[in-house]
Amino acid sequence: MALEIEATDSPPPSTTLQQAWERQRTYSKNAQAAQRRFFRLRIGILVLSVLATFLAVTNSVLEKVSVAEQVATVIHVFLLLVPITLSVLMAGAVKFDKGNNWILLRGSAELMKKEIYCYRAQVGNYSDKNSRDIKLANKLKLISQRLKGTPIHQSSLNPYEGEITQEKPLSKSKNQKPLANLINKDQDDKFSDLTPEKYLVWRLEEQFQWYRQHARQLDKQLHYFQWGIYLLGGAGTFIVAVGQEIWVTFSTALTAAFSGFLELKRVEATLIAYNQAADDLYDISTWWHALSSQEKLENFELLVMSTETTIQSENAGWVQEMNDALMELYSEAQKASENGKSKIEN
Predict the structure, then answer these.
(1) For the CA atoms of the chain, what is the radius of gyration?
(2) Cβ neighbours around 236 below 10 Å, total
(3) For residue 344, what pLDDT is reported?
């Protein structure tokens, strides 16, 4: 697919670089779609689990009091439908939730972005301008080959459509301060070669702000759900104290759902990783600004390699963390499915 590039007076961008960006954006776009499907399905399972418990408790309470027959019938129908729906979702989750696709595609997209920025900075394997296109093409091939034989090829990839230069900007808080304020980030055409100043702003600072923004989001989630868990624990104690022990089952189910959400997203571990990566990038920026003009020219490659190593270390750690989480999740789902089958057989 040919990419739309705005006409400028600068030389036309490398075809190889255009294709690299196209593939990177395709992987990133499909990773986001797989992520949405994964969390929607898993959160749906958590919600239905809580709903099933609520209906079971409600049905037990209503059996002890006189209620309209129609109300009792409706509750009974839902009491049958919710567990059936839940079992169907759990059975199909491993096959269709696309959790593996999300992790594999995001990891590959980040590896491609690393190669693109090294190419643009002309460092490492890309220091020779005459051969860097073929080296970039070979790197893209190696990254793509890693996906062969994986679940990625069991579904179609939607191609990226649009201009490479158009990206959704990160929202900024009032107290957010840039590491460098040398160049307008919106000026990056994604194809031109990078000077040290441009690399610092368009790569290091952009990634630093990404980590900080997502760390703030994770911090809010962690606090909200942890406080929810604590409040539900207190509510359970109160329920027992007033003699309504039957509702403790429901509060316990809610607590399990909150804990399951935090574990599903690996909120705490990811928050720590993002903060550590942001701190490392901040240290790199501080080191860079302490250099003289001549030292900056001599250490540009070290700046790029240090930055890319930091980003890739966080990415590799995230991939391993999420792979472990999925293995645990799928193992539990398999056990639940087998237990369900054994109950039916008995």
Answers:
(1) 26
(2) 19
(3) 39
The C-alpha atoms of residue 239 and residue 243 are separated, in whole angstroms, by: 6
What number of residues does the chain have?
A: 346
Contact present, 66 and 273 (Cβ < 8 Å): no
Tokens of 162: 């649009």
Vertex 277 angle, CA 273 and 283, to 5°: 145
Question: What is the rounded distance in angstroms from the CA atom of residue 185 to the CA atom of residue 181?
Answer: 9
Give residue-wise pLDDT tens across range 179-214. 555 556 567 889 999 999 999 999 999 999 999 999
State how far the alpha carbon of 332 is from the alpha carbons of 96, 326, 336, in Å: 16, 10, 6
State how far the alpha carbon of 167 is from the alpha carbons of 200, 243, 346, in Å: 18, 57, 56
Euclidean distance between CA atoms 97 and 40, whole angstroms: 9
pLDDT at 171: 54
Within the chain, residue ranges assigned H as helices are 15-62, 69-96, 99-121, 132-145, 196-199, 206-241, 248-265, 267-289, 293-298, 300-345
DSSP code, position 146: T
Within 8 A by CB and 6+ apart from 280, the residues are 310
Distance (Å, whole) CA 137 – CA 17: 9
The rounded percent of the chain whose pLDDT value lies above 70 is 82
Residue 64: C-alpha distances to residues 11, 57, 61, 117 (Å):
81, 11, 6, 68
Nearest to 32 by CA among 113, 102, 94: 102
Report which of 121, 310, 128 is spatially closest to residue 200, judged by C-alpha positions: 121
In degrees, to the nearest 5, what angle opens at C-alpha 184 toward C-alphas 170 and 126? 90
